[in-house]
Amino acid sequence: MFLMRFALSVLVSSLFRCTAFLCAMANNVTNRFHQSLTRNALRSYLAEFMSTFFYVLAVVGSGMSARKLMPDATLNPATLVVVAIANAFALSSVLYTAWDISGGHVNPAITFAMAIGGHVSVPTALFYWVAQLIASVMACLVLRVILVGMHVPTYTIAEEMTGFGASVLEGFLTFVLVYTVYAARDPRRGPLSATGPLVIGLMAGANVLAAGPFSGGSMNPACAFGSAAIGGSFRNQAVYWVGPLLGAAVAGLLYDNVVFPVTATTGVSDGLTV
Description:
- The protein is mainly α.
- 72% of the residues lie in helices and 0% in strands.
- The longest helix has 34 residues, at 2-35.
- It is globular and about 55 Å long.
């Protein structure tokens, strides 16, 4: 009889603890969700939408312009240079405009890395993704409607590349890009300035020059998704999601925990928080 009472008391105590834990988790999720719907948060989503829209418009539009001027654009090295310059200029410009509002992600891979590292909450990251993807689709749709008769180009991999190899390449490119983003945003390196967006844009342009003929040098799942949605071809779309997301996560974790770890003495823990 004593053992039954003891077991019953332990069971009741465990149920109370589990209930309290679940309630605490529910309250935490609710609070985070409410924080993702504040006025400042909505401003951040709008900034992400606008910056991603202009970025995709410039990048995809540069490819269409190159095809208009050079019919055999796929075999002309000038096309690669044009797209790389457009990437560098556009990314630097839109990052500068959104730098102090949303953090200037303009890329689901960067948002994913920030969420993994705890710099943004998961609900906020999901809203960022929605804004970025919708902006990319709308930018490509605008190009499709305005430039009548021209096909919206999609990211493709070279014939000698496998899907796995292209995904690994995109992962490495995104790793370098995201690592540059973390370094440019780190206040321990000095006050934020216009140099940060410029450096990030130059890195993106260099990556396009290095890998454009092989995987397209997307480094941005939203850009690849928008062009695929309007261009009508989702072939190898996983390449532009799996590789960049993994590469971005590794870059963020490596920067935060190994290369420039946060120490208790410095008191710098939210330097990259949006």
